[in-house]
Write a structure and sequence with these properties.
The complex is a heterodimer of chains A (160) and B (157).
Chain A lengths: L2 H8 L4 E7 L2 E6 L4 H10 L7 E9 L10 E9 L4 E9 L5 E3 L8 H12 L2 E3 L36
Parallel strand pairs in A: 2-5, 6-7
Antiparallel strand pairs in A: 1-2, 3-4, 4-5
Chain B lengths: L6 H19 L3 E6 L3 H9 L12 E2 L8 E5 L7 H10 L5 E5 L1 H4 L21 E3 L6 H17 L5
Parallel strand pairs in B: 1-2, 1-3, 3-4, 4-5
Classes of the chains: A alpha/beta (160), B alpha/beta (157).
């Protein structure tokens, strides 16, 4: 049985939707059940997703339909079972914060700092949430859709 | 030394100028400030196939105090710009700057929140070597132009 269906059996309330495209299995989960689900996915003997491959965010500001603005995407890989899974969780614009998964996978540390730097989504429980790619005095979050494309904030040199 | 004193004094000062220029152009100690992909082409120019050592420029010195040509190789971001300025300020006279690759000349194909659009907005540049990355022959041509520039400059003692 494909993984999304297995998870949906165990966590009925948590999983919003699943889809699968040519082997790319994805589950969309609710905010509240995120940490429990992640811990389960890492520790359960049937899944053993011990490798967090990527943690990133998407901004759906100009997407057209009305939906929560951000979506955090986690890519998981199970090295013992050679299985991959994508977990997505929606984040509203006003209350843009998500619990951190650094307790489960320490690799999430820098990924979450990058998402904070580029999108402005806070991770509750993160020990060192500060900018990682831009310099400290930078104002704004550059990868949001409403950051002007040509706006530069040079530290030294001519300003535009 | 004023050349208006006598014709012979002018002859000597210009000869000394020429000799100093000759010495400085054939003993270039570069500081390769490498940040990005152009570093690959820099390395291949410095290695045996397209040798930079035959121009006298083969010894990189990874300290600004000990070098005279700052070769800025690769994209400079706004976060790196104060560091570059500090390195340039720490170099002692006489010093020259080579902008290696289009990212340092004009910003290259980047036009975003993070990239400095040409290092000449921060430090004065002597030779621009365009290319993404520039071919080693291109780099050697730029190096020779820098040598010509060093030769014809008024040398300070």
């Amino acid at each position: 049985m494909p993984i999304p269906n297995q998870i949906q059996e165990k966590f009925q309330q948590a999983v919003f939707a699943t889809h699968d495209f040519r082997g790319d299995e994805t589950i969309v989960v609710k905010h509240e059940a995120l940490i429990d689900l992640m811990r389960f996915l890492k520790n359960d003997s049937e899944f053993l997703f011990d490798f967090l491959m990527d943690l990133t965010a998407v901004d759906y500001l100009n997407f057209g339909e009305a939906r929560p603005r951000f979506e955090i995407v986690y890519h998981l890989y199970s090295s013992s079972k050679n299985k991959r899974l994508r977990v997505k969780v929606s984040v509203e614009e006003e209350n843009s914060s998500v619990p951190t998964v650094t307790a489960i996978w320490p690799a999430a540390d820098w990924y979450e700092r990058e998402v904070w730097d580029m999108f402005g989504i806070r991770f509750i429980g993160h020990s060192n949430l500060k900018r990682i790619l831009m310099y400290e005095e930078f104002v704004g979050h550059p990868l949001r859709r409403d950051y002007p494309v040509n706006k530069r904030q040079p530290l030294i040199g001519p300003k535009n | 030394m004023e050349s208006s004193l006598s014709p012979t004094a002018g002859f000597f000062t210009s000869k000394i100028n020429e000799v100093l220029g000759w010495a400085r152009k054939y003993s270039i100690f570069q500081y390769p400030f490498v940040t990005a992909c152009c570093g690959m082409e820099y390395m291949s120019t410095a290695c045996s196939h397209y040798d930079m050592d035959r121009f006298g420029a083969g010894l990189p010195r990874f300290s600004p105090r000990q070098s005279d040509v700052l070769m800025v190789v690769g994209t400079i971001s706004h976060k790196m710009a104060p560091v570059l300025k500090q390195i340039y300020d720490q170099m002692t006279e006489p010093k020259w700057v080579v902008a290696f690759g289009v990212c340092t000349c004009t910003g290259g194909f980047y036009d975003n929140y993070a990239t400095v659009m040409g290092i000449d907005t921060i430090i004065p540049v002597d030779v621009y070597i365009p290319g993404c990355p520039p071919r080693p022959e291109n780099v050697l041509d730029g190096l020779m132009k820098l040598q010509e520039k060093i030769q014809r400059e008024k040398q300070s003692l």
